[in-house]
User: Which sequence fits this backbone?
């Protein structure tokens, strides 16, 4: 499928044929002929604003193809905060929905119905996951997996930690060496809950 710029350049090529030459088309549009030639050859990509002015002068209407929304899943982002450290913000109220392509979700083995997003607070998982990052959690995975990052409930707290198998239970391991691992064994296993495996994270820079 051609993208918007491919169709725009194809339109310019056809306009040049109709005009008879790049120089004639440049005269019609007010664009420097060297610049116009670089657009058509692919040496330089015009901006949308530049294309809009040219097409207005040519009397051409070119619309960007509509997004096929069926190719995307809307994943809820909840108000709960995953503590890279600890968090007592555990409400599952939905703040909004964010689009993820079905292709991407399939590539990481996540079904849209099982996915949710939430913010991370704290720095115990740095440098991998930082304060303010957003994580995508696959809530269908509730069995612990050695070496994987999970959204964990411990008592009243909500944590994001890497699991590590220990002789008598599990360790909740932080990436940040300034934080000690949390040992989960014996009676602590009763208060230990897995809400899902972290499968993706994103950050604002």
Assistant:
């Amino acid at each position: 499928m051609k993208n918007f710029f491919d169709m725009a350049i194809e339109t310019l090529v056809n306009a040049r044929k109709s005009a008879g030459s790049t120089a004639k088309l440049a005269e019609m549009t007010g664009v420097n002929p060297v610049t116009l030639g670089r657009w058509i050859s692919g040496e330089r990509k015009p901006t949308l604003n530049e294309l809009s002015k040219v097409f207005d002068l040519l009397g051409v209407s070119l619309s960007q193809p509509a997004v096929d929304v069926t190719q995307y899943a809307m994943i809820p982002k909840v108000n709960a905060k995953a503590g890279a450290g600890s968090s007592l913000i555990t409400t599952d109220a939905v703040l909004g929905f964010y689009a993820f392509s079905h292709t991407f979700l399939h590539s990481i083995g996540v079904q849209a119905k099982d996915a949710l997003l939430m913010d991370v607070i704290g720095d115990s998982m740095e440098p991998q996951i930082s304060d303010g990052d957003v994580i995508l959690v696959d809530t269908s995975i509730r069995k612990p997996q050695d070496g994987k990052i999970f959204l964990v409930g411990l008592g009243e707290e909500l944590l994001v930690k890497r699991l590590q198998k220990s002789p008598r239970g599990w360790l909740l391991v932080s990436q940040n060496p300034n934080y000690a691992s949390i040992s989960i064994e014996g009676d602590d296993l009763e208060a230990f809950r897995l809400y899902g495996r972290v499968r993706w994270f994103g950050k604002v820079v």
